[in-house]
Amino acid sequence: xxxxxxxxxxxxxxxxxxxxxxxxxxxxxxxxxxxxxxxxxxxxxxxxxxxxxxxxxxxxxxxxxxxxxxxxxxxxxxxxxxxxxxxxxxxxxxxxxxxxxxxxxxxxxxxxxxxxxxxxxxxxxxxxxxxxxxxxx
Length: 137
Fold this sequence. Notes:
Oligomer: single chain
Radius of gyration: 14 Å
Shape: globular
CATH superfamily: 5'-nuclease
Distance between the termini: 13 Å
Strand order of the largest sheet: 3-2-1-4-5
CATH topology: Rossmann fold
Number of strands: 5
């Protein structure tokens, strides 16, 4: 699928990209879409934090620092989870069986009118709320 429009990356997408796992090519295409300025790419600080704790837990603090450096080179706008975004995520979490971090990605996608890039099957239940750009299914 050729990327079009704006996107929100969740931790699944970023971890696939950084680890060159299945779906990484699809994430690369989205990143190139952002580099060409054809669309914007966003990520919540909550989802970035989720990536970092997973990387640190699995590969150590040095690898987490490397991930931060890699993310800083990408055309991704990291969006702080402010009060309004937190309330929106809490509302989503109250009504859908998704992780709280995933609720932040969904809330950000709603706010930015963007599609969530993910391969996480939890997102099947929120396809009526936001468009999903599936990495694999």
